[in-house]
Amino acid sequence: RLDPKTNRFRTYKKRDGLPANDVRSIARDRSGNMWFATTNGLCRFDGRSFKRYTVADGLVHNSVTRLLYTGGDTLWIGTAKGLSRFRDNRFQNYTTRDGLAGNFVTLLYHHPEDGLFVGTTTGLSMYRSDTFKPLISGEGAFRPHVSALLNRGPGEKWIGTWNGISIVKDGELTQLGTAGGLPDTFITSIIQDREGNIWIASHGGVSCLRNPNLKTYTEKNGLVNNTVVTIVEDGAGKYWIGTGEGLNSYYKGTFKTYTTKNGLKSNAVNDLLVDRRGNIWIAGIAGAGLLNPVT
Asked: Which of 1, 46, 50, 47 is nearest to 21 (CA)?
């Protein structure tokens, strides 16, 4: 389903069956279905056709912000007015009345041992035993808008916000911001790579913490734009970096840029996902893009 002229890019838009062109998040389930979060509902793509889900089907709200597949038959859907769980073809909805810290969902994160975490514009909640509870160890210690999370193991969590990173370790709290070497405190994504290094995306570039050294990559190093929205690592150890002005790959010290000049339909990237074949799915404001990076 790639562009027959280049065999690299394929973009799905409203004319192809998406509910809207503005795609915020992407997930993939065990059957290979792709799920798209749009401004006008949830959408499933089975490789042939699109199916839209809205409030008429039980979704809590049509403005979908985040998606997370946690295995089995369970898909979590964050929206501007609450959270939905889609299981057995049914929606179960949650709001602040059920223990969420806020209704505008900005982050969905799952850890095998600790379960589901839901970040909102007004705090962070943990889901366990069918109940939402606030993250007690970090309560009141960070700005409410939670935008990123990394669980590094027992007793250690890195919580990214619009005001830096709160590190909760063994009950102790430390803050990481510009004073600690970050280029900006507007944090958008935190991941740990296969070697244990921590990558931090912010509105000042992308930073890599290789203990004890923190190095930041910006436009001066080859990044297409310093406003970084997300970062993922693929199976080959290559990093994919979505920004407000295009997409970068980073591998062995070299940046490669993808923009509208060479195939993207829009330079504004909202989310990235690597599928089992190594293809890169791109959520953007002009549809859902598919990139074959090996051709």
From this structure: 50
